[in-house]
Amino acid sequence: MKKTLLPFLLLISLIAVAQVKGKITDAKNEPLSFVSIYLDKTTKGTTSNDNGDYFLETNKLGKQVVVFQFLGYKTLKKEVNITSFPFELNVKLEQENIQLDEISISTKENPADRIIRNVIANKDKNTDKYANYTAKFYSRGLTRIKDLPKKFLGQEMGDLGGGLDSTRSGIVYLSETFSNISFQKKPKKFKEIITASKVSGEDNGVSFNRAEESDINLYDNSIEVFNNLISPISTNAFSYYRYKLEGTFYDKNGKLINKIKLIPKRKNDRVFEGSIYVVEDDWALYGSDLTTTGVQVNLPFVNSLGVKQSYNYSDKVDAWVLVTQTIAFDIKFLGFKPQGKFSYVYSDYNFNPSFNENTFTNEVLSFKENATKKDSVFWNTLRPVPLTKEESQDYALKDSIKVVRKSEKFLDSLDNRSNKFKLLSPITGYSYRDTYEKWSLSFSGLINDFGFNTVQGFKTSLGASYYKRLNDEGKWWSVGFDVDYGFSDKRARPTFYFSKKWNNFSRPRMYITGGVITAQFNRRNAVKPLDNFVLSLFRRQNVLKIYEKEFARIGFSEEIKNGVFFSSSLEYANRKPLFNTTNYSFVSEEKYQPYTSNNPLEPGNFTSSVFTAHKIATLNMGLRFVFGQKYLTYPDSKFNIGNEKYPTLSLNYRKTFAADNTEFNSDVLIATLRQDVNTGNYGELFYKIRAGAFLKKKDIPFMDNLQVVGNEMFFVTDVNRKNNFGLLDYYQYYTNDKYAEAHIEHNFKGAILGRIPLINKLNFHLIGSAKTMFMSDAKPYSEYAVGLDNIGFGKWRLLRVDYVKSVNGGNRKSGWLFGLNMSF
Questions:
Q1: Is the pLDDT of residue 293 over 80?
Q2: What are φ and ψ of residue 732, in 5° steps?
Q3: Which H or E run includes 116?
Q4: For labelling alongside 620, which of 172, 302, 559, 641 has CA 20 to 30 A away?
């Protein structure tokens, strides 16, 4: 044992001291953070922390040149003779003397425009030099919060892990990650293997500091991570930016560096502000210091986002490569004020990697075994950026209390506080938890399913459920019941359910449910209960049409292979007609049309239904294919992120059988193809195609027909708008034969209106859409719309307006639709 352990301890000791370390300050002795430090003519480096402290790994003794590079300050090359480790090297950086060349400003053309055009023209040439590489990646994420409210929506917020002081301010998230990354430019592929991950106060240590998610590649036309902000060196950047040459200076190798100020052409457009630094003649990025706001990234709760980058010259590929980056954020939302910074260090580039067909797969992120179990010795020896005193204290504090906070006594004390039954609990709901034993008992309040329809009148439900978590990998089961009660029809409808899931990887899930419910005639649940509530009580439009179903159902679903999802269910039901039992509304019949019947095809027929009572069995089987699906593998779960290059295809087979009347038995196939496409500077494209066909045309119950989703609301949400027909009555189209529908929409963002003087100052986004539907025994129906998105004030720009025209044979109709776009 001693023979095995001794070499390891000697190695750890050598690593611990084989470094250059010190402090970096400015002329006023103020610490400088985010300074890039590296060995000359290499990409092996690090960065300083918030206190200006750094340490640089090297095991080479003798003369070496250490380079200190920081935007706005003169690059310092320090030749040192390292005789022993650790070697201390403290330095002061002087502010860069940026001068504006009089010759440059005497030309007719804006000199900054000339520089930017050269950068754009040489983008491919520069990035092709490191089209393939591997590198080591280190990230650190830190989030602080100020004046955290004690309660939010009536719930106690606690101390968020123990990092808050008496003013309820402090660190709420601190994490670190070591990764090995691989990149290929054409076709673009990325792979990250996390070798170590740590989260302050957490046992599992799963940090979410992904390298690909932090990729702020200004050479791309748009920055996907920042909601597709336009890069200042995009191919159409001159439509969004003006540029000013603020001055020049020479770097450590005598290269002329140009500092270019970015001036947005329109306030609140999808752009950055700040400066980029460009290497003359190479026309490559030397650094960036950029800011943007929540308005630009369409996240109203964000006050600001900041990005700083430093590039280093590599003589191996004659190119400037990214070595350090920080992303800072400032958020204010509903009383919460988090601020933070994520720092990244890229090192040990290999520009001639040996990639093969197995290098890149659909798995873009994985964890090495025990990556979340590394001890403090590992982190203290290999961490490239030293911890600040505050960060060290946070680790120490939370590591010391996490054992206590996992204890039964502590968890019971928390549960005792949250488990108190309150005066409003019967209305809002109540949960009793035993966190240590991993179970909970919940009661749904009276407002949980409160609503109104003309069949049940005002309705509500009461229910209870039990949940048991079996492990941390997603295995659990739950059981529960609900009782739905209508105050007008005086009918209670009970339901029960049991559900079990086995893991968070393929997510196999089985459920059993049954009871009595009211179901919509349109299986796609075209009418939202809240919409019907508003239309009924304020306009006397009872658009929701329902029937009663006594049923028992069993179902199962699982991702059987990456990107292939299977689902199935078998149900036996007794279906019964329902009729209106109330005429109540907040408004009188004198001002509005009277209520229609519950018969979706005969609104004036209050005595008979669209179908006769019957019993029938239904088998559903479905497959969903997410082609080329990319995914992340965590130690306890698999997270799918899709692949926007390819569409998603859904196939469903539905068979009804064992009916009282054999004519009711049917077989139908339904296919859906949909895709969201990011078109970069030209906005976002969405399309969806859905088609269905019965194997044999038969006189089946109305609810088994294929139907489209209509709309009779004046105000619609973004989700509804992509699936429905804006001017089509809810029950106008149905078929027991064949049908197809298609939806396409393009949000041009600022690509069109941003080019029109004066209008471009409004920052509205132009949207065009078209929808069409073909159905057997019916005339085709089409809609065309033009709309404006991003309407609002300041950073709250969530309103959307569409003008829609429909064509149905010789019938034409037009109207306005308003709504909120919540797709940030």
A1: yes
A2: -75, -35
A3: helix 111-121
A4: 641
